Amino acid sequence: MEASPECTQQGRGLALVRRRPPAPPGLRESLKARLRWSCSCSVQGAWALLQNLLPATRWLRQYQPREDLAGDVVSGLVIGIILVPQAIAYSLLAGLQPIYSLYTSFFANLIYFLMGTSRHVSVGIFSLLCLMVGQVVDRELLQAGFDPAQDGPGPGANRSALNASATMPALGLQDCSRDCYAIRVATALTLLAGVYQVLMGVLGLGFVSTYLSQPLLDGFAVGASVTILTSQLRHLLGVRVPRHQGPGLVVSTWLSLLRSAGQANLCDVLTSAACLAMLLAAKELSDRYRQHLKVPLPAELLVIGAATLVSHFGQFHERFGSSVAGDIPTGFMAPHVPDPALVWRVALDAASLALVGSAFSISLAEMFARSHGYSVRANQELLAVGCCNVLPAFFHCFATSAALAKSLVKTATGCRTQLSSAVSAAVVLLVVLALAPLFRDLQRSVLACVIIVSLRGALRKVRDVPRLWRLSPADALVWVATAATCVLVSTEAGLLAGILLSLLSLAGRTRHPHAALLARAGDSSFYGDPAEFEGLVPEPGVQVFRFTGPLYYANKDFFLRSLYSLTGLNAGYAAARRKERGPGVGAGEAEPVEGRDLGPGSSAAALVPSATRFHAVVIDCAPLLFLDAAGLATLQDLRRDYGALGITLLLACCGPSVRDTLRRGGFLGEDPGDAAEEGQLFPSVHCAVQAARARCQELVAANYTL
């Protein structure tokens, strides 16, 4: 599209010619091309597909052992050493036996080593996902007649078996104990969550996880951490309390703990106090002297090793009744297909689990990629994390995702590639095959201490709320509401509340964007808001209106109110009144504008007769991100009303998407560059203003001649 003559003169002979966009292919041609590309087969195409699916086949061929091997081995050993105690501890959150956590850590590291695109992310057991899995497991155990509070062999085992005997025949669980049914529920949940993630990756829905904003994720992490902390207090005190379900879980658990505080096991309380003190002191020292430590201090492993020795030789379980980890078998169990009946029972729970795991994994992968100067593929990350859930579900594993704490340790210890994950998997494999029985006498209170200390980073996010409030009250509200709902209702309700509030916040920001009349800076071509810049002079006879947001169904009325209030003329009312009274009624006889008062600094003019004030309105469409059907209808009605009053409506700086919408909606001609587009769209505000003034001069000259 060639620029107007006025713009050519102002630009000293320079004319802008808009390129004609290529004709979009039809739906039939697009489907044919896509099908042809999908069905084409070649050796090169198959190899490229394999490399995209398994990125390790690409970067392993370029691996440089001299530069990368030492850092990968050291970081893999450190992460493997950290994984072992955390895996055993997090089994408490999931309500499963420790061996299943070790299986999960092994398979997750091995699969992500082959499929992940991030070089530094550590994928494995994650406290928030363990909590969500544990809540589903407890609910299903309760419905099956088992006692969720029964952590292992003890005096309540017989009662639990009697309660379950009536329910097991209906569910086909005659040969299935509590632990057997718990892992069946967990694997069914994990399989379906992984299927959701794989489908999201195949369909290219990696962007969906980005709609979980950082304030939402931080609030969810804090609320879930409070829930985790509450669930572990019974192990710290060594008391037996029911594992509550449903809304108000945290409050109900605290009330039960207060009622049972007098029955606390003194041995567990003293052990918990000593372990907490040592772990917190070690963490503070590690944080303070992090720059001087080449390898992080494995505090958890040291504390667990010492506590296991003390518990074994002190016979804490036999003498004081302390709850211990119990027998941990070695080797791998035979694969087992998850129960289809249980898969359908946990379909909704798997959706929230998949969404949370995807959001944390993608956000962490992108964060480390930005800080180290490389790129990741969000859809491939979804495939990798999904396969870390789908395939291990057949080997008695539960849900996994990327974990921030272990990823930071991995980076700090010199990790260069995902080969470190293979080293970590080898460390866990050694424990599974040979060393697992050594943790038989480890007290559960010690494991609870490891879990609670690992929540330090998440709970410290509370200190960010005042700064977030100063920066964005809407984001702070999302943070607080998500955390409060997680604590007071449930983690799933907290996630849902956070998503809804985030969407409402986004809609609220676009519903009332800033609107202003622009003025000109001297003889230049710059137009700005007089409330922002000094020395701007309004253009005589032309109103330049800027609406800094999209124009769609939710804010079209605000768009019109802002325009009418700032220009001092309700075009719709004036055009209707003129039509009723006949063409002799002037445009300046309009009634006062109904709308909000935008303040004296918003460049609003007094409500004086418009016929003496302006003959054209230019809308600066540069901030106009998109138009929907309602926004397009608003512009069409506005052009009609202004035309009835003898006022010209021009558009400036329209983006390609806005131009296409205007063309498809009939606001412009069907072909790019036709007369309708030439006369209404301009590449800059200054060009539109000059065109409006030229038209006014031509009209005045024609009237004078007549």
UniProtKB/TrEMBL annotation:
Cellular localization per UniProt: Membrane
Region (Disordered) location: 1-21
PANTHER family found in the cross-reference section: SULFATE TRANSPORTER
Transmembrane regions: 69-90, 110-133, 188-212, 342-362, 382-405, 417-435, 479-504
Biased composition (Polar residues): 1-10
CDD domains listed in its UniProt record: STAS_SulP_like_sulfate_transporter
InterPro entries registered for this protein in UniProt: S04_transporter_CS (IPR018045), SLC26A/SulP_dom (IPR011547), SLC26A/SulP_fam (IPR001902), STAS_dom (IPR002645), STAS_dom_sf (IPR036513)
Annotated GO MF terms: secondary active sulfate transmembrane transporter activity
Name recorded for this polypeptide: Sulfate anion transporter 1
Superkingdom, natural source: Eukaryota
Listed Pfam families: STAS, Sulfate_transp
Organism encoding this protein: Neophocaena asiaeorientalis asiaeorientalis (Yangtze finless porpoise)
PROSITE patterns membership: SLC26A, STAS
Keyword tags: Membrane, Transmembrane, Transmembrane helix
Designated gene of the protein: SLC26A1
Organism ancestry: Eukaryota, Metazoa, Chordata, Craniata, Vertebrata
Domain STAS: from-to ranges: 540-692
Membrane disposition: Multi-pass membrane protein
Keyword field contains Methyltransferase: no
